[in-house]
């Protein structure tokens, strides 16, 4: 009988601790709130700006190298980059660093002016203010999604696919720019159409084309512009799938008992490539199987997991998908998946993959023996270029883990903490859920670090609970067996 | 298309109709008389045949070409004949003067030439000649009649009646004369059985109460059923068949079928095996003489082994891939 | 101490019961593990056809609550009719797994309902072993019980319906069958209303679980009836039967699908009749015990007879007048074996309703099949009430098993019981350690000589038991039977692994290098449907695939394996068997978006639609005799051909076109091969105007066609297609020619 009380007490305490752990933490601090009518002070001048846009993947990666000069009287430490509202939504990530100097990464904030404001800003905060008249070479790297679309939108099963990129002639800037040009890097030089601007002062055509790179500009003495001058669009051949994950959920589950780290990912996937003009023809598909030409269909997805990944599985709503291969050794853990059917443009697929790791490769124990630090990859997507619309990463820690802290490699939009009950948990396991949207595969293989505290007693809860449960069961059954059901002798 | 066709044919026919009206009328007379006299089915000859099927017809004629004579060995013909007559008779009974639907029959013996003329080498054949004139004339079948498909329908009169009513305005009903003989026989048999039972009850009593009898009966039943007798009964399998090379095959090839004899062999084997088990369990321990007992044990064991191994080998014949066997039968 | 002493001695009773428990657990373990072949070879997946419906229903049950399951109207099957699923199924199976699911969830096990469904049958087979043990224990003793448990645990006849993944009613029904019978025997022996009530309770569970409950409904009354005839009427029988019947019947009427059948249909009348008979007999018994006079007794006897005759006459009258439903076709076809073939082609078309050839018996029961009669005989030796039951059960079950393959299932348990009795009798004799003492024997013999004995036919068991002298003969017999038992185990394992462990949804094939290659076309196509067609798309296919489409593709189907509406099935059959111009309006009228056919020609997969086509034709012909004619699909020489020799009707039928559409483009010209029929196909493949190929699985097993929308210019598709392919000049002519059968959609 005492055992019950004991367990009850234990239960209560643990409940309390977890509640404290589950208290909501403050919103991630990557936003900056400013009045609606904000306009950046004209304190800088871009003396020279080179903007190169890489289109070899189905989203655009811009690298902007700009020499910024402080033209005001006092020190300045905040540089604003304007975006039109719709463009703003397309930005996947925005990093800034000191290209030449020693300052390294700069802190970047989204400036929040409220809804329906036509112009939005990113603010780059220099780690040390810039003296008047001094210059600094900023390097901004920006990834934008939804900037390309297949044109024509419907093709034959074996046709080439052409993508059309639409962007601006100049880099949008809040400050005057003395000199700038825009470079476009394409996957190949098969470009049937591109916007021709009126020839430049020196009579050379704009743009100039060298191999698979287009160059607009150079242009002199630009006033501040948000729109970025003319709208420029280029149509180029890209006969590959446009893998688009509408939603990804990734569970990382830590088990101290099993010494195991279980990872499970669910993909809601669509191929945004050009749709089939006619219906799918198996005959043509079978024919292409021998010499496999580039196709817009998703045939395989290859994952390079962390070395030591074990017993992977690949399933969907109706069971195991038999067409997967896994090669694992001391150097690599290579997982190759084939969907049940080739995914053509507009086709959908859902699948679940999961695998295990030995926990010790990811968990470090502080000397106290009760504090742990977990270091796992934040995202491990397929090798193929992917765009994630929404990502949910859930880290499930052992039962009774408290004061959980984490540091994510990418800005988190939303974070919530909850209790996850499974396998005879009494109070449930502490879990953190991180949500973010509009992510590109550039973010794969970055580390997520989670630290938490877990008292030694917590680990003993489960066996104790099981023991009490079983013993009560025996007692009850014994009592039942003693009951006499006969009515009379 | 069809409509136009029929209109045309009608136009074409009208003069003939007016001319042949009288002829047609007395044709009806004639055939209905014959039908009356022959109580339903009109027995045809070559000439009568050509007359009854010849246009113009203002009546419908069902003509059965058959070969009743046993020497043709046409089972279906003989099975079918009474049904056909029954149908004809019941039509006759309901419609005194036939109302323009005749049932005729041409036997091969009488109408060889017609068979030859039509180039027929199978029998029976039931043809339905719709009228060529009148409101329910069917120009598509002036010369080539509808044929009753024996392979698709069952042969009882009802199904023919259904077939006719599908293709003609007539609705023949079959009235099967109630068979009193069966009833009488049944009743009397039951009565007899009861009386016998009553009289000889005392003599039968031990049998009725005898465990051995009942056990024997039930064992036999079980052996029958478990050796696939119901299958024989339902599928009407042959008792034995001849294997391709003149000999007789006792064992049907394949897992899914069997022969009559085969099942009996199996039943016997089962019986022997069961009996071995029984006697090992019951007889042997009751034998007082040690040596005799020892011998019996060995004998029964041997028998059991042999039968079982034979059974296995039999099964291997049915199911090729079966890996297990016992000596001595490989 | 001697073995015998060990077995009898009181002091070792606990030890023995522990031993028994261990043995039973081991048997259960063996029973479960021998059913896991398919899980190990493939994966934990639901098998075949019907299980997919049960699985879907179970999912519905655990997603919604019980009452919404109870009145579940399913509008995603039998479009546009829908199906009152809640009222037309036996909920026992789903509710069972639902309860298990919720218990596990309560214990916070993150278990998937699918895995519960997959593992349910093996788990219950363990329980069946236990029930059989108890049942046989009532017949003879523990030893026989354990043997029977071991037999039923691994007998293929039962495994065939209870491997992991075959999530069908039979999975739990056999356990319920045996357990109900055990409780009945127990109630009969003790004459206890308590056990009778328990029996009724499990009878109720059985009714909820399987249509085969009718077997119990008739077995128990039959047993009671025979006992009465044998003059073995007793208060025990009266109490047991009445408590079972009264409670059981009331309980069974709570299942919506059963409802008032127990008092309205002939299947249940035997039970009612016997109930009445027992009342009369009891009454008469009582009166007789009170009144001595002779002639009065004979009066009473005649009264019984009269009452019996009258009641049966009344029964017949009611049946004829239609107050009581006559026997259902499925049930009736058991007695009149020719019935189904003529009247209900759908029933006849199902392979498991065919009669059983002898190899099937041996295949499913091996040595038990010949131990079975021996066991029955031994029941006759000690003919107690319960043995009568085994005998009747044995005879009836073996008859049913002979008529229908699937009823092998009901035969297997009694075979196991009888065989166990026989075998344990043998082992009792030959494992008895002590030698008989000649002196004693002589004395016994002398005693025996006194009363002279007459020899009967089967008088094996006359005279006193002496025992076995020679250790040698003991060893031979025991050795031999041990060997046969080993053989039996091998046989069962072999059969299970080769015949009963394929989930028929996934096919396995061997690659040249001997490695296993999995052919997953069904799921490929179903999943394509699930992901890339609108949620409310209507899929037409032959009824065999209805449940799978519902379960895996999660799309609306026209017909499925619950074949309750013959006309609707015939409609599909007609659509498949007619020419496009006829089928298209049917498809439009039923809002069909996609048509799915199974085609084995490329792989040599014989279970495809062209081979099932004849049944579609027959069923359609049953309803539209003059629109679909089986005859026209056979050549003049009566052959069923798909090559050049195929009849026009065949070549123009939608099924033929859909099966072979585009197929010949896969081969060099004129080389197209059908590997199932093993024939060369016509050089020019069929053309489709009203449908377009939407998806074809990797090995062409599943082909899905999209039904074209009406032509914008109101042309019929044929001329539209002709126009597309540039035959402009002939268009007008074609138009006229086809004018007659221009498509009109009402």
Automatic annotation (TrEMBL), chain A:
PANTHER family: DOLICHYL-DIPHOSPHOOLIGOSACCHARIDE--PROTEIN GLYCOSYLTRANSFERASE SUBUNIT 1, RIBOPHORIN I. It is found in: Endoplasmic reticulum membrane. The chain crosses the membrane at residues 464-481. Keywords: Endoplasmic reticulum, Membrane, Signal, Transmembrane, Transmembrane helix. Pfam families: Ribophorin_I. Belongs to the OST1 family. It comes from Sphaerosporella brunnea. Component of the oligosaccharyltransferase (OST) complex. Residues 193-203 have a biased composition (Basic and acidic residues). It is a single-pass type I membrane protein. This is Dolichyl-diphosphooligosaccharide--protein glycosyltransferase subunit 1. Residues 185-210 are annotated as: Disordered. Its main location: endoplasmic reticulum.
Automatic annotation (TrEMBL), chain B:
It is a multi-pass membrane protein. Pfam families: OST3_OST6. Subunit of the oligosaccharyl transferase (OST) complex that catalyzes the initial transfer of a defined glycan (Glc(3)Man(9)GlcNAc(2) in eukaryotes) from the lipid carrier dolichol-pyrophosphate to an asparagine residue within an Asn-X-Ser/Thr consensus motif in nascent polypeptide chains, the first step in protein N-glycosylation. N-glycosylation occurs cotranslationally and the complex associates with the Sec61 complex at the channel-forming translocon complex that mediates protein translocation across the endoplasmic reticulum (ER). All subunits are required for a maximal enzyme activity. Gene3D superfamilies: Glutaredoxin. The keyword Plastid does not apply. Keywords: Endoplasmic reticulum, Membrane, Signal, Transmembrane, Transmembrane helix. It is found in: Endoplasmic reticulum membrane. GO terms for biological process: protein N-linked glycosylation via asparagine. This is Uncharacterized protein. The keyword Glycosyltransferase does not apply. The chain crosses the membrane at residues 180-201, 213-231, 265-285, 297-315. GO terms for cellular component: oligosaccharyltransferase complex. Belongs to the OST3/OST6 family. It comes from Sphaerosporella brunnea. Residues 1-19 form the signal peptide.
UniProtKB/TrEMBL annotation, chain C:
This is Dolichyl-diphosphooligosaccharide--protein glycosyltransferase subunit STT3. Belongs to the STT3 family. Its EC number is 2.4.99.18. Pfam families: STT3 (PF02516), STT3-PglB_core (PF21436). The lineage of its organism: Eukaryota, Fungi, Dikarya, Ascomycota, Pezizomycotina. Residues 721-746 are annotated as: Disordered. Residues 18-418 form the Oligosaccharyl transferase STT3 N-terminal domain. InterPro entries: Oligo_trans_STT3, STT3-PglB_core, STT3_N. Coiled coil: none annotated.
């Amino acid at each position: 009988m005492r055992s019950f009380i004991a367990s009850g007490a234990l239960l209560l305490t643990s409940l309390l601790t977890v509640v404290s752990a589950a208290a909501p933490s403050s919103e991630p601090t990557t936003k900056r709130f400013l009045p609606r009518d904000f306009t950046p002070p004209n304190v800088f001048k871009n003396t020279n700006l080179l903007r190169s846009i890489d289109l070899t993947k189905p989203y655009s990666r811009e690298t902007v190298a700009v020499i910024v000069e402080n033209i005001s009287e006092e020190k300045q430490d905040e540089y604003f980059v304007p975006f039109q509202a719709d463009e703003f939504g397309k930005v996947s990530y925005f990093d800034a660093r000191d290209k030449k100097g020693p300052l390294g990464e700069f802190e970047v904030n989204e400036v929040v002016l409220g809804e329906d404001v036509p112009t939005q800003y990113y603010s780059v905060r220099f780690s040390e203010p810039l003296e008047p008249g001094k210059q600094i070479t900023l390097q901004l790297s920006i990834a934008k999604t939804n900037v390309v679309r297949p044109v024509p939108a419907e093709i034959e099963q074996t046709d080439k696919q052409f993508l059309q990129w639409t962007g601006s002639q100049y880099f949008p800037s809040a400050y005057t720019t003395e000199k700038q040009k825009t470079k476009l890097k394409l996957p190949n030089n098969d470009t049937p159409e591109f916007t021709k601007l009126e020839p430049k002062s020196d009579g050379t055509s704009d743009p100039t084309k060298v191999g698979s790179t287009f160059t607009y500009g150079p242009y002199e003495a630009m006033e501040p512009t948000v729109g970025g001058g003319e709208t420029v669009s280029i149509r180029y051949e890209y006969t590959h799938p446009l893998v688009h994950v509408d939603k990804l959920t990734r569970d990382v589950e830590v088990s101290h008992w099993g010494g195991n780290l279980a990872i499970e990912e669910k993909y809601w996937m669509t191929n945004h490539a050009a749709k089939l003009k006619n219906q799918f023809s198996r005959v043509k598909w079978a024919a292409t199987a021998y010499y496999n030409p580039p196709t817009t269909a998703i045939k395989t997805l290859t994952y390079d997991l962390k070395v030591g990944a074990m017993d992977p599985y690949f399933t969907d709503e109706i069971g195991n998908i038999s067409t997967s291969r896994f090669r694992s050794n001391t150097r690599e853990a290579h997982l190759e998946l084939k969907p049940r059917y080739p995914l053509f443009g507009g086709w959908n697929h859902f699948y679940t993959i999961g695998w295990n790791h030995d926990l010790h490769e990811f968990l470090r124990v502080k000397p106290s023996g009760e504090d742990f630090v977990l270091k796992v990859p934040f995202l491990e997507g397929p090798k193929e270029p992917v765009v994630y619309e929404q990502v949910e990463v859930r880290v499930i820690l052992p039962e009774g883990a408290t004061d959980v802290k984490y540091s994510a490699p990418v800005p988190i939009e939303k974070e919530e903490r909850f209790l996850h009950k499974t396998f005879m948990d009494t109070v449930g396991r502490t879990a953190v859920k991180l949500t973010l949207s509009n992510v590109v595969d550039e973010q794969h293989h970055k580390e997520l670090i989670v630290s938490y505290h877990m008292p030694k007693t917590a680990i003993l809860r489960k066996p104790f609970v099981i023991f009490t449960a079983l013993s009560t069961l025996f007692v009850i059954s014994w009592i039942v067996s003693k009951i006499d059901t006969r009515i009379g002798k | 298309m069809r409509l136009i066709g029929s209109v045309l044919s009608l136009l074409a026919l009208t003069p003939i109709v007016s001319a042949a009206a009288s002829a047609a009328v007395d044709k009806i007379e004639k055939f209905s008389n014959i039908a009356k006299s022959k109580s339903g089915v009109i027995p045809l000859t070559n000439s009568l045949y050509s007359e009854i099927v010849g246009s113009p017809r203002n009546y419908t004629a069902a003509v059965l070409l058959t070969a009743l004579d046993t020497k043709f060995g046409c089972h279906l013909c003989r099975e079918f004949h009474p049904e056909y007559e029954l149908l004809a008779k019941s039509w006759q009974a309901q419609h005194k003067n036939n109302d323009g639907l005749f049932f005729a029959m041409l036997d091969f013996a009488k109408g060889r030439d017609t068979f030859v003329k039509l180039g027929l080498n199978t029998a029976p054949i039931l043809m339905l000649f719709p009228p060529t004139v009148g409101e329910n004339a069917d120009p598509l079948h002036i010369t080539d009649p509808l044929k009753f498909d024996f392979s698709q329908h069952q042969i009882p009169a009802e199904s023919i009646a259904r077939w006719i009513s599908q293709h003609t305005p007539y609705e023949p009903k079959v009235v099967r004369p109630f068979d009193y003989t069966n009833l009488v026989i049944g009743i009397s048999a039951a009565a007899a059985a009861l009386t016998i039972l009553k009289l000889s009850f005392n003599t039968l009593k031990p049998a009725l109460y005898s465990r051995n009898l009942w056990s024997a009966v039930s064992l036999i039943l079980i052996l029958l059923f478990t050796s696939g007798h119901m299958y024989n009964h339902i599928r009407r399998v042959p008792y034995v068949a001849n294997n391709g090379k003149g000999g007789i095959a006792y064992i049907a090839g394949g897992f899914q079928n069997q022969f009559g004899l085969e099942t009996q062999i199996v039943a016997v084997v089962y019986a022997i095996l069961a009996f071995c088990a029984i006697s090992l369990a019951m007889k042997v321990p009751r034998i007082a003489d040690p040596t005799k007992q020892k011998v019996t044990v060995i004998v029964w064991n041997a028998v059991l082994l042999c039968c079982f191994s034979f059974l296995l080998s039999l099964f291997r014949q049915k199911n090729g891939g079966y890996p297990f066997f016992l000596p001595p039968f490989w | 101490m001697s073995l015998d002493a060990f077995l009898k001695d009181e002091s070792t009773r606990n030890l023995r019961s522990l031993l028994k428990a261990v043995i039973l657990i081991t048997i259960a373990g063996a029973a479960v593990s021998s059913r896991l072949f398919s899980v190990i070879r493939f994966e934990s997946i639901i098998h075949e056809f019907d299980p997919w419906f049960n699985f879907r229903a179970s999912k519905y049950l655990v997603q919604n609550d019980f009452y919404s399951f109870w009145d579940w109207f399913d509008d995603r099957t039998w479009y546009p009719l829908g199906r009152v699923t809640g009222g037309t199924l036996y909920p026992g199976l789903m509710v069972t797994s639902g309860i298990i699911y919720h218990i596990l969830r309560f214990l916070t096990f993150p278990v998937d309902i699918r895995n519960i469904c997959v593992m349910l049958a093996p788990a219950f087979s363990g329980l069946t072993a236990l029930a059989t043990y108890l049942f046989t224990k009532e017949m003879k003793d523990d030893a026989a019980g354990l043997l029977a448990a071991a037999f039923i645990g691994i007998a293929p006849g039962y495994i065939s319906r209870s491997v992991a993944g075959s999530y069908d009613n039979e999975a739990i029904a056999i356990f319920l069958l045996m357990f109900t019978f055990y409780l009945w025997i127990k109630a009969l022996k003790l004459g206890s209303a308590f056990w009778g009530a328990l029996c009724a309770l499990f009878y109720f569970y059985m009714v909820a679980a399987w249509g085969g409950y009718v077997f119990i409904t008739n077995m128990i009354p039959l047993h009671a009836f025979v006992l009465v005839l044998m003059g073995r009427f007793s208060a025990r029988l009266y109490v047991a039967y009445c408590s079972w019947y009264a409670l059981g019947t009331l309980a069974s009427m709570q299942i919506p699908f059963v409802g008032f059948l127990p008092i309205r249909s002939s299947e249940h009348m035997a039970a009612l009749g016997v109930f009445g008979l027992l009342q009369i007999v009891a009454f008469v018994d009582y009166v007789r015990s009170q009144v001595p006079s002779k002639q009065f007794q004979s009066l009473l006897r005649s009264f019984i007879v009269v009452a019996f005759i009258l009641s049966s006459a009344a029964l017949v009258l009611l049946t004829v007048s239609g107050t009581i439903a006559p026997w259902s076709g499925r049930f009736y076809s058991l007695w009149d074996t020719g019935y189904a073939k003529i009247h209900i082609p759908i029933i006849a078309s199902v392979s498991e309703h065919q009669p059983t050839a002898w190899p099937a018996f041996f295949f499913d029961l091996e040595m038990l099949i010949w131990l079975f009669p021996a066991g029955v005989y031994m029941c006759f030796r000690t003919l107690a009430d319960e043995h009568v039951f085994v005998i009747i059960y044995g005879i009836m079950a073996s008859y049913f098993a002979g008529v229908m393959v699937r009823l092998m299932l009901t035969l297997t348990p009694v075979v196991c019981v009888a065989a166990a009795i026989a075998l344990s009798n043998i082992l009792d004799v030959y494992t008895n350690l002590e030698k008989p003492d000649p002196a004693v024997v002589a004395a016994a013999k002398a005693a025996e000589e006194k009363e002279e004995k007459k020899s009967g036919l089967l008088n094996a068991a006359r005279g006193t038991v002496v025992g076995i002298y020679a250790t040698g003969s003991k060893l031979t017999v025991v050795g031999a039977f041990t060997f046969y038992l080993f053989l039996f185990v091998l046989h069962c394992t072999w059969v299970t692994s080769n015949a009963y462990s394929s989930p028929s949804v996934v096919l396995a094939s061997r690659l040249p290098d001997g490695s296993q290659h999995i052919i997953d076309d069904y799921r490929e196509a179903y999943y394509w449907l699930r992901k890339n067609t609108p949620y409310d798309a209507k899929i037409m296919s032959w009824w065999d695939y209805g449940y799978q489409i519902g379960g895996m593709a999660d799309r609306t189907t026209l017909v499925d394996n619950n074949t309750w509406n013959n006309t609707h099935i015939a409609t599909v059959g007609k659509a498949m068997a007619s020419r496009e111009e006829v089928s298209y309006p049917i498809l439009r009228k039923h809002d069909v978006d996609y048509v799915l056919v199974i085609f084995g020609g490329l792989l040599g997969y014989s279970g495809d639609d062209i081979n099932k086509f004849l049944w579609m034709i027959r069923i359609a012909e049953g309803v539209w005799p003059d629109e679909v004619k089986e005859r026209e699909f056979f050549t003049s020489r009566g052959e069923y051909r798909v090559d050049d020799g195929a009849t026009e009707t065949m070549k123009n039928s939608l099924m033929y076109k859909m099966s072979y559409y585009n197929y010949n483009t896969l081969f060099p010209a004129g080389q197209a091969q059908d590997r199932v029929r093993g024939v060369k196909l016509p050089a020019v493949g069929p053309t489709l105007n009203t449908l377009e190929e939407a998806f074809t699985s990797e090995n062409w097993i599943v082909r899905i066609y999209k039904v074209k929308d009406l032509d914008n210019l109101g042309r019929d598709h044929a001329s539209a297609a002709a126009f597309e392919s540039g035959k402009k000049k002939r268009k007008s002519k074609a138009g006229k020619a086809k004018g007659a059968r221009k498509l009109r959609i009402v």
